[in-house]
Amino acid sequence: MGETTLPVNEYVEFWNDTLADKFERYREILMNGLSLHSRIPLERLEVAPGSRILDVGCGWGDTALALARMTGPQGFVMGLDCVDRFLEKGRQDAAEAGLTNVEFVDADVETYPFKPEYDLCFSRFGMMFFQNPVVAMRNIRKALRPGGRLVFIVWRDIEDNPWLGVPKQVVLDFLPPPGEDARTCGPGPFSMANPDVVSKQLEIAGFADVRFERTDGPVIVGDSVENAMRFQLALGPAGEVFREAGEEAERRRGEIEQALRDVLAPFEEQGRIVMPSSSWTITADNPG
Ligand SMILES: C[S@@+](CC[C@H](N)C(=O)[O-])C[C@H]1O[C@@H](n2cnc3c(N)ncnc32)[C@H](O)[C@@H]1O
């Protein structure tokens, strides 16, 4: 186990008791299938050798390892996530790669007692799930030295992300939307899609010079129609509708699975299901 500073947080609990198993089952899709959205920003990112870098909501740690290579042996990366099971994969991969300048810590970003020691905070899809986004952003700013930079990737709206929107609509043709008190992963994958809202949140948290850069492109959401269909029923907006509908969902499972196969099949390219997607890479500076 890593160092633990977990408070009771309903979203952190949900990540651990419900999502972690499902995420592990579909790791290939989540870690590699969506990686276009970190590959492009990481190629553009300038990292001075010896930089100290924080990767928040780092999951299995592949971006933390990429950053560890970029900063080199004089630098350091801390990968932080609230699911220690994910971090174990990062620790194993770092050991296998012989990378000694990266550490993985099990903690809640909102409350971790950061010191202002990092030059860069990076996150791929790890910022959209906080109980209080401004509190988390303010805490992340505490981790940055004056002049330090925050670079994070979030999904744009569901309309710009057919890989999530199309399956959700299919499931909603059969089942009711989730109720108000549905258990969730937090504000959710589209909670930072609106640049005006996120700019305001970052400003309130003390960041300056907020910029948005759009990445559009294909994501691989399964190595077969069947696998893509199962992924959609397990996770994301379609999975949430299905999970929350309980017995009714199970009763209609056959019809829903077939409708999903029908809608996913046209996206097959050389045996893989490839769908359009869109993200923001958001950059903001800590003025000090
Ligand atoms: C969509 S996943 C992205 C994981 C990884 N960055 C990637 O792209 O594969 C979101 C991650 O944020 C983590 N997370 C959510 N809320 C968190 C919190 N309050 N503190 C730390 N990590 C959190 C989850 O455990 C999960 O690993």
Write up this protein.
This protein has 288 residues and is an alpha/beta fold. It has one domain: 3-Layer(aba) Sandwich (Rossmann fold), CATH 3.40.50.150. Helices cover 44% and strands 22% of the residues. The protein has helices spanning 10-25, 27-33, 36-44, 62-71, 84-97, 133-143, 162-172, 195-204, 225-234, 236-251, 253-264, and strands at 52-56, 76-81, 102-106, 118-124, 144-155, 208-220, 268-269, 272-285. Strands 1, 2, 3, 4, 5, 6, 7 and 8 form an eight-stranded mixed β-sheet that branches. α7 runs antiparallel to α11 (253-264). The protein is globular and about 55 Å long. The relative contact order is 0.16. The mean pLDDT is 94. The structure holds S-adenosylmethionine.
